[in-house]
Amino acid sequence: MAKIGIYGSSFDPITNVHLWTASTVAHRCHLDKVIFLPCSNKRRDKKMMTEDKHRLKMIQLAIKDNEKFITDDFELKQDAWKITTYETLKHFKKVYKNDDIYFIMGADLLVDIGNGKWGNGDLLIRENNFIVMARDGIDMVKVISRSPILRNNDDGSTFHLLDKGLAMEISSTYIREEFALGGEPRYLLPEACYNYIKEHCLYK
């Protein structure tokens, strides 16, 4: 039985912080695989600057040398307005039915789920396990205790709360802005992705 982490994000673009976070989580939580799961640009709650094919390709370039990292285009193929994280995790639990599945997310998303902003949030928490990464200014224990959705569906093993120990919060937004304004974000993302962005004139 393997332990598999599902790491969902827009990855627009994937950054060195994404990779460092996935590596840290895999090491500390003894994960056998981390699946990078880019969300579709058809989603109505997010505005992405880049076509799905480019974001997927950059992930593939970024993780090609790490045997623990894989990418999956499941959400890119779905009708984005019909699918929630709950349905996504049901899919992966069927694909990896003999393994333990964990959803990797930041504490900011835990706040959103606790406030009822996610579809099927009650079932999502009740039926799944989560690795939650600390964010500055968010007390994860208090977030859980103050939310009926979170505290009433936590059996004691639902949430693995993880403090990375180092605040590295450089965002994809920052990198996009640097490219757009003629900045130089070269060492904030993998070299292969930097070159890909330059080659395809992304984020101009």
From TrEMBL:
Domain Cytidyltransferase-like: residue ranges: 6-177
Keywords: ATP-binding, NAD, Nucleotide-binding, Nucleotidyltransferase, Pyridine nucleotide biosynthesis, Transferase
Molecular function in Gene Ontology: nicotinate-nucleotide adenylyltransferase activity
EC number from the UniProt entry: 2.7.7.18
InterPro entries, per database record: Cyt_trans-like, NadD/NMNAT, Rossmann-like_a/b/a_fold
A family per Pfam: CTP_transf_like
Pathway recorded for this protein: Cofactor biosynthesis; NAD(+) biosynthesis; deamido-NAD(+) from nicotinate D-ribonucleotide: step 1/1
Reactions catalysed: nicotinate beta-D-ribonucleotide + ATP + H(+) = deamido-NAD(+) + diphosphate
Function field: Catalyzes the reversible adenylation of nicotinate mononucleotide (NaMN) to nicotinic acid adenine dinucleotide (NaAD).
Family: Belongs to the NadD family.
HAMAP family referenced in this protein's UniProt entry, alphabetically: NaMN_adenylyltr
Listed name of the protein: Probable nicotinate-nucleotide adenylyltransferase
Gene source species: Bacillus seohaeanensis
